[in-house]
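The following block was generated as part of the benchmark described in Methods. Ligand: zinc ion.
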Amino acid sequence: MAKRQEQEAAREEVTEVAPGILRLELPIHMPGLGHVNCYALLDGEGAALMDPGLPTPGSLRALKSRLARADLRLKNIHTVLVSHSHPDHFGGAVHVVKESGAKLMAHTSFSLGFARPAAPEVSVGDLHAHESSLRDDPAPIESHGGCEPEGSPRAPFTPTLSLPDRGTPWGGEHPRPSFKMRIRWRLMQLMQRSWIFPAVSHPLAEGDVLRLAGREWFVVHTPGHTADHFCLHDPVEEVFLAGDHVLPTITPHISGLSSSRDPLAAFFESLDRAAAIPHVRNVLPAHGHPFDDLAARCEAIKRHHDERLAKVRAIAREIGPATVEAFSRRLFKRRSWGSMAESETYAHLEHIRKTGQAECHQNAQGKLTYVL
Ligand SMILES: [Zn+2]
Ligand SMILES: [Zn+2]
């Protein structure tokens, strides 16, 4: 089967995807993804950049060469926007700000507390995006997180990185990145303030209005994929900068390891909020190509999660009280087993529990077990 569009390699060409908005594809090599879209919003003063890619030399080189194709240099960038706290979105921000003196905008809740080197961008079911990762054959049966305090409201801030070493809330293992990635992350921790972790000079909140690319944009807070995710909506030209919230053919990873009480419920509410915006005809996602029907794509993503929830409930009826690991092994194919699949399964189980349809107990081994 053909590659999903989100997996395609970054192209050098720069395309104008709406009046005054350029799509710059930057290289990333993450499971299920081949590029990240950085959007340049042009005006008489220069440009704003939304999501300037990874902090790697290769990505920064690509960013500079794409900008040059549009007759822009880093010093022409007056604003950097970061849709959410994932490295392929915020990573290049510090370098761009340092070179240009640009303002840096992110949501008021922007936090790197839950950013992990191994955190996937896309749903475990989409890591092998053109194949199905959900099980169609049953596996043999084997065998809480509170809300973070809100960041200080609307004051400039520098988020810090924490990498908790404790086990997961459900009693499983934390995702373990490769040795190379652990070393790189450790270096980032040591250098965090000066190197890649951006200091947000202009915190944004729901309903804020920004003037960029010669028009007004409304900030739409869309927690779910991360608690700090936001999108931008231009109601006049009917353009929606979607970040990772709504992707064309795959679904973003919804982690159980989140600062949200119920990340899946938050994601559903954010999808409803996006779907309710009338007349959006040009959706510009952070991965993949522009598409035109925001409401239909939001509905399709909700249906996908509803089907997964139904599958989790069916598994619960079949196997009775079981651990998150046991659920995830029934839900996903063997190649996807592990902490990522468990984190996603945990988010679904917690949603079922928090909507009053299941109970959760701790077993003798300290692992959570769920029963309808
Ligand atoms: Zn993301
Ligand atoms: Zn992304």
